[in-house]
What does this fold into?
Amino acid sequence: MAVQPTKAFLSLQNVSKYFDAFCALDDVSLDVALGQKLVVCGPSGSGKSTLIRCINQLETHQSGNISIDGVDIDDSAQAQTAIRNNVGMVFQQFNLFPHLTILENLTLGPVRARGMTAAAAEDLAMHYLERVRIPEQSKKYPSQLSGGQQQRVAIARALCMKPKLMLFDEPTSALDPEMIAEVLEVIKELADTGMTMICVTHEMGFARQVADMMLFMDHGKIVEMAPPSAFFSRPKSDRCKVFLSQILRH
Amino acid sequence: MQHMTQKFAGQGRRILALIMGAVVVLPLGGCSQNWGWYVVNPATVSGQRNLKFLIDGLYYTMTLSVTAIMISIILGLVIALPGLSKKRAPRSFNRVYVELVRAIPILVLILWVYYGLPQVASISISVFWAGVLALAISDSAFQAEIFRAGIQSINRGQYEAAASISLNYRDTMRFVILPQAIKRILPALGNQLVYMLKMSSLVSVIGMQELTRRANELVVTEYRPLEIYTILVIEYLVVILIVSAGVRWLERRMNAAD
It folds into this structure.
């Protein structure tokens, strides 16, 4: 079900972001259509995280233009609504709320930000907990779960807000090796449902299976952008070649 | 759990031993010429009356302190939040308030609120509310600093997660940040309550019929300061040890929740 990009759902034009003098994003342009799955890789400090954090404005960009669903992203109320209604995010460190149960973690957003009733939000939460295969943990607290389970809860929490675009910021980097597979499996299933996603990861096997477009970033720029088949077999730039040879060596 | 219960039992015994020690050892002095415990002897009618008079002050000490601490917690939070703003003006407001209030001695504030404020604002204020207001304002500066530190100790990821599920500032604070911050600052809030109980004795100077005032009045009529003030010490000791144990119990209960 290759969805042909008709118009861009998310569009970045000449976006730049500085942390003081350090240039984290350097004139980045990118179009993402609904249904597309982008995997972003690159050395640390290359601007991968900053890229997706600018999309939902956890970081504000200093120049250029970002638009989501036709709405320009700035600090206006309209832009905030566009982000709130469309974009979900999964963090490297899960960032679950430690003082709330799993179920409460999931229902907080739907009840407070979407105005759902508690009962409806719980039904929704249980639906997504079943999809990430941990409905039996709903009454526990995050600290009682393994890292892999916590990250799956975090994915379910994001899905409860019914986003059209999901951002993953190195979702398996903080996990023990034996837990990486269960989280990637859930993300893959999500991709199979046609969810639009941008995923920062170094799991290249996963990227090969899921991505329809690979991005390689270095020094705040998108150095290479190609479908996975071309990306892995014929990387064009030297920096990308070096990076891939290092990451695929083991 | 086993360990906790034992620890708690140990704590209880220590507290009990302290109180018992005070109660048993001090009256022994009654053998000598200098002590006159008859003044608070529960076996005599006048002793009973005096004891009841002293202990009844507890009601005012408690209501005064608890009301004041509740107001000071709310006031402290209201003062702390602008201190965390990215904007300069709210931060300055926070700094000026905290520095100013911390610089005023509590006794001076009590006198000013009771005698000065009615003239400035042309209102009448009861002894109780003058005391509450002065204690609350004085404590609010400390509460504000405690809240600020507690809120700042919460990981930035919690704010980002709240933003990622579209919570606004109010809901982020109410449901995500403050519950975690309050848990962390609970020991400090407990300390403030103990501090408040002790500071409430100063409200005796404007005539509040709390523990200290009653002891002073009884000393004037009975002229047995040693015995009466000893009872006063024991009264504060018992109240504060009980409150401290209560705060520790609450801490343990909240820690058990996750």
Q: What stands out?
A: Residues 166 and 235 of chain A are 27 Å apart (CA to CA). The first strand of chain A starts at residue 8 and ends at 19. Chain A has a mean pLDDT of 92.
